[in-house]
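Handout, section B. The chain below has 157 residues.
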Amino acid sequence: MKVRPLLLLTAITSSILGAVVVYLVLSVPNDLKADSLLKTARADLAAGRNAQARQSLSTIVAQYPRTDAAAAATVALVSLAETERAKLERDLVAVRRENTNQTKLIADLQTSVAQIKATPPPAPVVVPPPAPKPAVKKPPAKKPAPKKRTPTRRRRG
């Protein structure tokens, strides 16, 4: 009767071994695909293409949830969201600072305009026309002396 426990032990061992083989056959290709997607997502992150990286990471988490790559993708998604949140916060602070500066500038301009409106316009300055220059009388031009006529003789003859 020693054969029966030996058969039973062999059956259990081969079942466990078969289950492990089936698990490896089904999970190893998934791990490889997830790792390749994770590498492309990391390359996208390094290149600054955050939208494509986020899409790849989300695909890993959705399609290969029980892989190491899915855990790494989840961590990468969280850090990406944190980075973008910090960038948005810095941008918001800069916009608020610029808004404050523009508000001060507008207030200064409004006070300047109010001061200009409050002061009466300056009296018009009338500039008298320039006095006419006294006419300088030129001495009368001398008439040229009449030409002396040379006597004309009539020739006889």
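Note. The radius of gyration is 53 Å. Compare this with the example in section A.
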